[in-house]
Amino acid sequence: MGSLKLTSITKAFGNHEVLKGIDLVVEDGEFVIFVGPSGCGKSTLLRVIAGLEDATSGSVQIDGAEVASVPPAKRGIAMVFQSYALYPHLTVKDNMGLGLKQAGTPKDEIETRVTEASRMLSLAPYLARRPAELSGGQRQRVAIGRAIVREPKLFLFDEPLSNLDAALRVQTRLEIARLHRQLKATMIYVTHDQVEAMTLADKIVVLNAGAIEQVGSPMDLYNKPANTFVAGFIGSPQ
Ligand code: ADP
Ligand code: MG
């Protein structure tokens, strides 16, 4: 389970309307990419879905239930950011398990889930290290591991690879694609990298100035862009 339905979502900061009526359905298990220029509202939309910001109007439903009054920790969502936000004084193992510990998960259950996630992410040899002793790619994998151990219905990734160099970006992208198949989880992923969008997505949502320009499969958008904005963004001939 992990379907999402957004209906007429708006978000204003003061009199600046950042989201202007977003309607979107994400099916359980889909990999959906949000693309669009810097400042168009991608991160704000993820934060509204996660409950880190309240929408000004509109509704967010997860698995058919309105979540307006559900706090972020209870939405079954895990978010992975561009900055890894790991605790420098904690080991990899404790960084990955901290959220579960805070939620009162029994110690042996935390141990099991952290061990399993560290295997999936090839982090098993590094569990005793601290973030400063890891490469950027390994740190980002710890941040992904921290999301996986919570067993969320919905993963939200906000430009997770943009701090990595080109080779690591490719490797981590393939790893995220593999995790998606393995976990069968719903994933929403923000990027401004066309290659990431075209290779990862079941469905791409093109945003521009707080509104959706087009939603479709990578091939739909490439072959039948709704307008020159989409064509320019996806890189199809105009
Ligand atoms: P993106 O992720 O697509 O680059 P954001 O969602 O971060 O865009 O931002 C969209 C717009 O909302 C920007 O103009 C940004 O300055 C504004 N914004 C985002 N968060 C806040 C906030 N907390 N207060 C005021 N303005 C904000
Ligand atoms: Mg952003």
TrEMBL record:
It is a peripheral membrane protein. The keyword Membrane applies. It comes from the Bacteria. Residues 4-234 form the ABC transporter domain. Keywords: ATP-binding, Cell inner membrane, Cell membrane, Hydrolase, Membrane, Nucleotide-binding, Sugar transport, Transport. It is found in: Cell inner membrane. Its EC number is 3.6.3.-. Its main location: membrane. GO terms for molecular function: ATP binding; hydrolase activity. Belongs to the ABC transporter superfamily. This is Multiple sugar transport system ATP-binding protein. The chain holds residues 1 to 238 of 335 of the full protein.
